[in-house]
């Protein structure tokens, strides 16, 4: 039982040291700012072109739906479907 407690204490100390090191590391700060800027630009583009994007997505969805309906209708009429 003492070995298991020592193992848990060792893992706790190891995890705490890694967490402290992670919190003190500032190498990724510039990348975070870059990601936030890119997200802001993408959101601005989506807001500006919202109507065009909505129309395009609706058109694509209608094309996919009609293609699916055509494909399933053809499968039902196929002689192989009757057995």
Can you tell me about this structure?
The structure is a single chain. With about 80 residues, this protein is an all-alpha fold. It has helices spanning about 1-25, 30-50, 50-75.
Overall body shape: elongated
Overall average residue pLDDT: 84
Question: In percent, how much strand structure appears in the residues?
Answer: under 5%
Q: Major sheet, described briefly?
A: none
Distance between the termini: 68 Å
Task: List key phrases describing it.
mainly alpha; 3 helices
Short description:
The protein contains three helices and no strands.
Topology at a glance:
Layout: H1 2-24, H2 29-48, H3 50-77
